[in-house]
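Researcher: Let's do a round of design. I'm pasting the structure tokens now; please hold your answer until I've finished.
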């Protein structure tokens, strides 16, 4: 949240150099409390994260030892605590400061943001709405806009955004937010027009960097690329013109390469903007941008180029979505032997993937391997029957039409994603880095060695300590499940003398619920909008809601032990 509307997005390298110079200055003269405060301010305003917040707190302590009544420094401490996730401490301190330093806008801003991170959106609304009216502050206005969006008050959010832009039309962060609001309202043409106009009027700002989730770089070019791609995909769906479909006659997986000229231009526009954004910017992680590029290339039928991008992405991270995408692209290129090899390994780890099974079966047909096809079809039918005895096994390759509610499905999907985040946070608090590496079964030693090298390089550049973030952030429901299971078994052994964690206190029922979710919704693709009809039924949705509620309740209880 902070990273979206609260960071300085201009002159990123210059600011990094300033931080470096200030850090060196402090090392030479630890008593230079003025430099300590300036370093903390820059750390907390430029791509803030937990590591930077920790360093900032140390510097602010030195400053406040000499100037304890400094309002800004005290407020920066609140912000650092909030960014570290110490929300109760941040709230307590902010309340004290509100009494001590009355009529200070930044205190109310922090109070509002704390409530946002606590997901107390009604409380955040009360704080930010009144403080925005009183102070008419840009930062408060952007935080208020975020809350309005969460509460689905899009029209009011748009009004606040417009008011902010009337005062400062070149404010990139606010324009970012307005474009997002327009997209959420499905006003894609207006969003595109706003983005294109902003780039024309303020070309120097077109590739300014903002951050999502503290790490993913976003520019106007990337934002526009996403919109063009989203519109293109939605038009494909409305026209029922997809690159891939299942033939009803012979159960064959077919690739359709022709799309209308109008849709083609949208994907070409997406490619144009993404290429503009990621050129000559090797110092950033552009994996999310490259993923957008890869998808547009695929939809345009440029499979060779798409494969090149996929291989580049897979060099840096082992990701099931990317591997599945590669299987599809290889199928489109008729590189069937590679499809069989990769899909075999993929299905060992993710046996529930319907798409990969469809591709694999069609590959066997295309190679004339009817015997192998019949065997694998029987295996799939047996697997499905075992998994759900009441489900018919005929025409398993053909998509089923399921009666579902879009709103209900969205709630279920969002619930899964929220659960994933809570599990990540819980594991991060209860597993040391050493234990984490020892327990992970899905990555090898080389992966961690490479990751550690990148982390060390990043640490030298940004002067922030390394923690568990990069490790646990890689986890999905599958990896989290196996991690919990293995550590519980480890702690249950009589001879185990290592550090005990709260993981051993999770009940068997909760483990079973988590296992069911893992089996059915192991990776993000399995609960994405693209596969809703295939992945969700009314009964499934109810099970998801019940299981999520029970697991989250268990996690909440364990946090207080």
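Researcher: That's everything. Go ahead.
Model: Designed sequence:
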């Amino acid at each position: 949240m902070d990273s979206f509307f609260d960071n300085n997005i201009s002159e990123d390298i210059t600011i990094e150099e300033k931080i470096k110079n200030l850090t060196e200055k402090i090392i030479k003269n630890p008593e230079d409390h003025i430099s300590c405060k300036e370093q903390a301010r820059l750390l907390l305003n430029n791509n803030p994260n937990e590591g930077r917040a920790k360093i900032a707190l140390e510097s602010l302590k030195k400053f406040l030892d000499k100037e304890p009544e400094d309002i800004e420094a005290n407020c920066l401490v609140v912000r650092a605590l909030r960014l570290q996730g110490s929300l109760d401490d941040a709230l307590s301190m902010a309340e004290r400061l509100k009494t001590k330093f009355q009529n200070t806008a930044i205190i109310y801003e922090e109070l509002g943001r704390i409530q946002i991170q606590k997901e107390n959106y009604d409380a955040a609304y009360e704080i930010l709405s009144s403080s925005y009216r009183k102070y008419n502050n840009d930062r408060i206005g952007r935080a208020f806009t975020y809350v309005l969006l969460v509460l689905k008050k899009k029209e009011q959010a748009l009004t606040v955004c417009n008011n902010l832009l009337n005062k400062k039309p070149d404010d990139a962060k606010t324009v970012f937010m307005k474009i997002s609001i327009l997209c959420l309202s499905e006003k894609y043409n207006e969003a595109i027009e706003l983005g294109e106009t902003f780039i024309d009027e303020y070309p120097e700002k077109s590739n300014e960097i903002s951050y999502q989730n503290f790490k993913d770089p976003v520019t106007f070019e990337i934002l526009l690329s996403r919109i063009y791609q989203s519109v293109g995909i939605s038009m494909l769906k409305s026209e029922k013109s997809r690159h891939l479909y299942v033939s009803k006659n012979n159960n064959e997986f077919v690739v359709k390469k022709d799309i209308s000229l109008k849709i083609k231009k949208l994907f070409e526009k997406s490619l144009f903007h993404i290429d503009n954004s990621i050129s000559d910017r090797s110092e950033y992680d552009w994996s999310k941008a490259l993923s957008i590029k890869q998808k547009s290339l695929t939809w345009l039928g440029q499979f060779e180029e798409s494969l090149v991008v996929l291989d580049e992405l897979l060099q840096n991270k082992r990701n099931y979505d990317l591997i599945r995408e590669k299987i599809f692209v290889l199928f489109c290129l008729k590189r069937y032997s590679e499809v069989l090899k990769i899909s075999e390994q993929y299905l060992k780890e993710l046996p529930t993937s319907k798409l990969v099974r469809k591709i694999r079966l069609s590959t066997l047909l295309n190679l004339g391997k009817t015997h192998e096809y019949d065997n694998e079809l029987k295996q799939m039918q047996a697997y499905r029957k075992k998994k759900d005895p009441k489900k018919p096994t005929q025409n398993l390759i053909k998509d089923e039409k399921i009666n579902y509610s879009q709103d209900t499905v969205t709630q279920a999907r969002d619930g899964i994603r929220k659960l994933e985040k809570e599990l990540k946070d819980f594991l991060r608090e209860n597993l040391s880095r050493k234990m984490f590496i020892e327990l992970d079964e899905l990555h090898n030693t080389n992966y961690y060695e490479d990751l550690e090298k990148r982390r060390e390089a990043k640490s030298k550049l940004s002067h922030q300590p390394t923690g568990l973030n990069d490790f646990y952030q890689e986890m999905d429901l599958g990896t989290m499940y196996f991690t919990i299971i293995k550590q519980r078994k480890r702690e249950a052994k009589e001879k185990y003398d290592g550090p005990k964690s709260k993981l051993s206190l999770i009940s068997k029922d909760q483990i079973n619920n988590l296992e069911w979710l893992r089996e059915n919704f192991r990776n993000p693709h399995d609960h994405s909008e693209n596969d809703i009809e295939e992945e969700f039924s009314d009964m499934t949705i109810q099970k998801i809601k019940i299981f999520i509620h029970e697991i989250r309740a268990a996690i909440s209880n364990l946090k207080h032990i």
